[in-house]
Amino acid sequence: MSFLPDTPTLVAYLAACLVLFVTPGPDMSLMLARTIGAGRRAGIATVLGTSVGTLGHTLAAAFGVSALLAASATAFLVLKLVGALYLAWLALDALRHGSALRVRAERMQGGVWRTFWTGVGVNLTNPKVVLFFITFLPQFVRADAPNPTGQLAFLGVAFVGLTLPLGILLVLGAERVTGALQARPRVLRAMDWLFAGMFGAFAARILATAR
Q1: How many Cβ atoms are within 10 Å of 116's Cβ, its own excluded?
Q2: Among 43, 45, 53, which Cα is nearest to 160's?
Q3: What is a single Pfam family found in this protein's UniProt entry (predicted)?
Q4: Is pTM, for the whole model, over 0.70?
Q5: Number of domain units in the chain
Q6: How far is CA 193 from the centre of its chain?
Q7: Segments forming the whole domain that contains residue 62
C-alpha cells in the first residue's frame, strides 16, 4: 500500500511517539488533573477530546504539507530543515527546563460532553501542537513518496492509535502515576534525557541527509 512507510521508518516514528507520550507535559497534566479532580469519566473524556483534536491537526498537516510538496520539492526540503531545527530546539529545551508535570485537581463542569469538547478545543487551539505536527510528521516522509498525503494521514492516525489506549491506561492509574512521578525527580530527568536524545538524533539525521 502506497501510504505505508517502510518498516524502519515506521518503527522509528512509533518509538518517537512513545517517547513523546511518556514525557510529562501539558497534555499529561490536563488528563491527570481532570481525573483526580472529577473522576475517571472526566479523564477519559479529556483523552478522547485531545485525540480528536490530534486527528484535526493530522488532516491539516497532511493536506497542507502535501500541497507544499506538490508546489515545490525545494520548499518541502526547507520545511524539513526547519522541522529538524525545531526538534533540536525541543531537545535542548527539555534539558534546560525539564519536564512540566503540574497537576492541580480540576472539577468537571457541564458534564462529560463539555469536558470532551474542552479537550478538543484546548488541543486544536494550542499553537505549539500545530507547529509540532507541521514540522514533526514530514520528517518521516520522503520527497519522492508515491502518496505523501496518505502517508502523512496514516502517521497521524497511528499516533492516535498508539497514544489513545496509553492515555486511557494513564487515567485508570492516575493517582499512582502522579505520586510516582512527583516523588521521583530522577525519573523525570531520565525522561528528559531520553526525549532530548531521540529528538536530537532525528534532527541530526535530517540535517545530515539534507547536506
Answers
A1: 19
A2: 53
A3: LysE
A4: yes
A5: 1
A6: 17
A7: 7-210
